[in-house]
Design brief:
The chain is mostly helical. 69% of the residues lie in helices and 0% in strands.
């Protein structure tokens, strides 16, 4: 999220700088637009942490579902016998 904020500001400076050199924009307008954009970008302090937790949860759930999708490979032997109720109590 922080990288996205920096990339947005860099893009504003890049295009604004080109327009300043072309004479279609002033430095004051670029500064004002940069300040407006900085206030609109998500700067909530816990947002990055919540995003990281969400990514970790998604990765964990992907692993769990992959494990649940594994076919069952446990088979009983042909000569296996059932336990009686008395044998289960001991």
């Amino acid at each position: 999220m922080e990288f996205l904020s920096f990339a947005t500001i860099a893009l504003i400076f890049w295009t604004g700088g080109l327009r300043i050199l072309g004479g279609t924009l002033t430095l004051g307008v670029l500064t004002a637009f940069t300040m407006y954009a900085a206030t609109l970008l998500p700067t909530h302090p816990g947002l990055e942490q919540k995003f990281n937790i969400l990514q970790s949860a998604m990765a964990a759930s992907e692993r769990i579902f992959k494990l649940l999708d594994e076919p069952v490979t446990i088979e009983s032997r042909a000569d296996a016998q059932r336990l009686t109720a008395a044998a289960r109590r001991n």
